[in-house]
Specification:
The protein has 2 domains: about 5-195, Fructose-1,6-Bisphosphatase, subunit A, domain 1 (Fructose-1,6-Bisphosphatase, Chain A, domain 1, 2-Layer Sandwich), CATH 3.30.540.10; about 205-335, D-Maltodextrin-Binding Protein, domain 2 (3-Layer(aba) Sandwich). The relative contact order is 0.13. Helices cover about 35% and strands about 20% of the residues. Strand 8 (about 205-210), helix 6 and strand 9 (about 240) form a beta-alpha-beta unit. Helix 1 (about 5-15) packs antiparallel against helix 2, helix 2 packs across helix 3 (about 60-65) and helix 6 packs across helix 9. The chain starts with 6 loop residues before the first helix and ends in a 5-residue tail after the last helix. It is α+β, with helices and mostly antiparallel strands. The longest helix is centred in the first third of the chain and has 31 residues, at about 25-55. The strands form 2 sheets. Strands 1-2-3-4-5-6-7 form a 7-stranded mixed β-sheet, sandwiched between helices. Bound molecules: 6-O-phosphono-alpha-D-fructofuranose.
Length: about 350
């Protein structure tokens, strides 16, 4: 049975296109994929855990269900730390940079990831995802105490980025700067097979994704933008449809394939999070690289996400991401202009 192009084949072909590639990147991606397969198996069992729990089985599974993001974090760290290609890692789940144990060789890549984004949706069987971004270290520093500056690079410095989506099927979407490609996990073969070659996001969409319960906490320009989406206007094909899953990867992926804009604006709901809830390094930057490689755009409301000079590993940023025209309109509204 012909199974088409596997992810390993695809990464190798991309690697062959850049002469200085040493195979290190291919090895790194391969191990990340193994981690995702393990996480996918556990996530898909999560629903089952509830049934097992009802039979008085030990609640270990239940533990996993509640703590799957901790589990996913551990799996990625365990799988990635031994390959000898990383100088350190950064995880949404871990306050500080993660060092590579002394018994393993270090490499020049930096892996930043959100191990299981949207994990509050696991026990209601809504799609969740793993998001990753990969950078190259620029100096020959290896001491974890001096690597933070190596990590805090703007998003346009990413050499690769993407996500795994654990949904009705398990998908991997990634870019190395040569377009965006989607793969679907074929469970009986255990391989990710090419299913969406060279994904392009429509210039404009008809969908907006935002948590409208935050309306009261937005500034007037943000309120005007969301009112604009909801106003009927034949010429611009409005009003938009509202679609909000509450899982960033699921909302982003739908808009990537069909067009539309996802927004998590700044709000004054929580004084500790004045710039919204989403993280620059492990959510906004990776998805911004993917969407720009697919012909879309990602902004913090003022300018490109990818150009932001990070100050902190866990800094939060407002996010407007999706179809280029829709995000440009959002920037104009945020500047006080009106369409
Ligand atoms: P809210 C999930 O917790 C998450 O980090 C993203 O996956 C999702 O887009 C967002 O938060 C949802 O946040 O405030 O709308 O519930």
């Amino acid at each position: 049975m012909a199974i088409g192009t596997t992810i390993t084949q695809h990464i190798l072909s991309q690697q062959r296109e850049n002469p200085e590639a040493t195979g290190a990147f291919t090895l790194l991606m391969h191990e990340l994929i193994v981690a995702a397969k393990v996480i996918s198996k556990e996530v898909n069992k999560a629903g089952l855990a509830d049934i097992l729990g009802a039979t008085g089985e030990t609640n270990i599974q239940d533990e996993n269900v509640q703590k799957l993001d901790v589990y996913a974090n551990r799996i990625i760290i365990e799988r990635m730390q031994h390959i000898g290609q990383l100088c350190c890692m950064g995880s949404e789940e871990v306050a500080d940079l993660i060092d590579i144990p002394a018994k393993f060789p270090k490499g020049n890549y930096i892996l930043l990831f959100d191990p299981l984004d949207g994990s509050s949706n696991i026990d209601v069987n809504i799609s969740i995802g793993t998001i990753f971004g990969i950078y190259r270290k620029k100096s020959d520093e290896t001491d974890i105490n001096f690597l933070l500056n190596e990590v805090l690079q703007p998003g346009y410095e990413q050499v690769a980025a993407g996500y795994f989506l654990y949904g009705s099927s398990t998908m991997m979407v990634y870019t190395t700067g040569k377009g965006v490609h989607g793969f679907t996990l074929y469970p009986s073969v255990g391989e990710f097979l090419l299913s969406h070659e060279n994904i392009r996001i429509p210039e404009r969409g008809k969908t907006y994704s935002v948590n409208e319960s935050n309306y009261q906490y937005w500034d007037d320009n943000t309120k005007a933008l969301v009112d604009y989406y909801k106003t009927k206007d034949k010429k611009t094909g409005r009003s938009f449809t509202s679609r909000y899953v509450g899982s960033l990867v699921a909302d982003f992926h739908r808009n990537l394939l069909k067009g539309g804009i996802f927004l998590y604006p700044a709000d004054n709901k929580d004084p500790k999070k004045p710039t919204g809830k989403l993280r620059l390094m492990v959510e906004a930057n990776p998805l911004a690289m993917v969407v720009e490689q697919a012909g879309g755009y990602a902004s913090d409301g003022k300018g490109p996400i990818l150009k932001i000079q990070p100050k902190d590993l866990h800094q939060r940023v407002p996010l407007f991401i999706g179809s280029k025209e829709d995000v440009k309109i959002a920037e104009r509204f945020l500047r006080g202009e009106r369409e």
